[in-house]
């Protein structure tokens, strides 16, 4: 970011403060995640996949459903770059009434400096910052997971609502705390928990399954398909499992709830990125100039935040889950006309759908209430 783009940070922060004013919360979550924006621009740099792309490093608040900030970077920049610096910037611009922040991140946040800063309470304002971060699955972590006894593995249960009733649903995954202590943990004053997550999987052993061990099958699969390595297939008690891990400084919470809480970041982050790219123009490369692209992306992010701020505070609850495309066709493309009647300005709106007219009335009343409060 440079002086020409710095104004966007100010606007993102202002929207953050306005969202807080509408709904004051003492505790919020910040999801930190990067996404690539493919381009054919000859001057664009290649990411670690080898593709030409730009990169957007985003910080999203699910409670307010807004982006509190974004950094537009070259595709060659590692997603883990300036993680701590960006966190500190976002914490410094958060509304004064917020007392507690919890961070969620993928493996890009698995950095000693970042984790120790949060767990050791180095932030002057917030002290210890709770976090759940996906940890890198190395051989020593797999071995720690293999050492866990079968009785210590517990099911990951997720709350789902059906027919107005909340029930617990088995996700098919299991969790267990593992005795895993990397070197950097020994040097830290913070308290950490490492949670392993496993999911049963079936392997195709080929023509002579009796002569092949699970480790040999996994080795062959990874050789044939590089993407298989991301599953971290591991043998436990003669069965094959996908293995993942989380590091957290949250001590009291049940492991199942922590896993569900952490996984909520993944689906929502992907959804937000998809909306930004496909429905708000962020995935469209508008120019060959990096600064223009950065401005274009920031405008897309502002559009998302303003739209969600409007939906959540000036439209009825039934509209809160509407995506930009649905809002566009149901709400924004309606025909309207300003007229003067009895000394008043009147907005005449035409729609054959009564509920849409009801939305306008609802928004009008909410806006009037807000204007009276502000004055």
Q: Your description of this structure?
A:
The protein is α+β, with helices and mostly antiparallel strands. 37% of the residues lie in helices and 26% in strands. The strands form two sheets. Strands 1, 2, 3, 4, 5, 6, 7, 8, 9 and 10 form a ten-stranded mixed beta sheet that branches. A two-stranded antiparallel ribbon has the order 11-12. A hairpin with a 4-residue loop joins strand 2 and strand 3. The protein is globular. Mean pLDDT is 89; it is low at 207-211.
Give short descriptive properties of this protein.
26% strand, two-stranded antiparallel ribbon, globular, 10-stranded mixed beta sheet, 375 residues, alpha+beta
What class do helices, strands and sheet pairing give? alpha+beta
Please report the number of helical segments: 10
Overall body shape = globular
Helix content: 25-40%
Order of helices and strands: HEEEHEHEHEEHEHEEHHHEEH
Q: Roughly what fraction of the amino acids lie in strands?
A: 25-35%
């Amino acid at each position: 970011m440079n002086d020409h783009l710095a104004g966007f940070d100010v606007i993102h922060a202002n929207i953050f403060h306005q969202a807080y004013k509408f709904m004051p919360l003492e505790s919020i979550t910040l999801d930190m995640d990067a996404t690539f924006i493919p381009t054919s621009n000859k001057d664009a740099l290649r990411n670690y996949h080898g593709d030409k792309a730009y990169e957007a490093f985003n910080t999203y608040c699910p409670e307010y459903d807004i982006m509190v900030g974004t950094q537009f970077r070259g595709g060659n920049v590692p997603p883990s770059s300036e993680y701590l610096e960006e966190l500190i910037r976002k914490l410094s611009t958060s509304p004064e009434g917020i007392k507690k922040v919890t961070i969620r991140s993928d493996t890009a946040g698995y950095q000693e400096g970042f984790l120790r800063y949060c767990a050791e309470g180095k932030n002057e304002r917030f002290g210890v910052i709770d976090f759940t971060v996906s940890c890198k699955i190395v051989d020593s972590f797999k071995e720690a997971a293999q050492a866990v006894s079968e009785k210590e593995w517990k099911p990951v249960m997720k709350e789902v609502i059906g027919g107005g009733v909340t029930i617990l649903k088995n996700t098919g995954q299991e969790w267990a705390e593992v005795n895993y202590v990397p070197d950097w943990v020994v040097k830290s004053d913070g308290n950490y928990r490492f949670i392993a997550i496993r999911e049963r999987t079936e392997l195709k052993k080929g023509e002579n399954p009796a002569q092949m061990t699970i480790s040999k099958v996994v080795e062959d699969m990874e050789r044939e398909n590089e993407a298989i390595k991301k599953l971290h297939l591991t043998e436990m008690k003669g069965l094959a499992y996908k293995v993942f891990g989380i590091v957290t400084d949250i001590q009291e919470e049940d492991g199942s709830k922590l896993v569900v809480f952490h996984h909520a970041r993944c689906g929502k982050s992907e959804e937000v990125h998809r909306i930004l790219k496909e429905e708000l123009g962020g995935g469209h490369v508008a120019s060959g100039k990096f600064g223009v692209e950065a401005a274009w992306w920031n405008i897309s992010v502002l559009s998302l935040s303003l739209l969600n701020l409007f939906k959540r505070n000036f439209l009825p609850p039934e509209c809160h889950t509407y995506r930009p495309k649905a809002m566009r066709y149901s709400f924004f493309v309606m025909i309207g006309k300003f007229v003067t009647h009895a000394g008043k300005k009147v907005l005449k709106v035409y729609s054959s759908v009564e509920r849409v007219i009801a939305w306008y009335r609802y928004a009008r009343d909410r806006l009037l209430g807000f204007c009276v409060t502000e004055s």
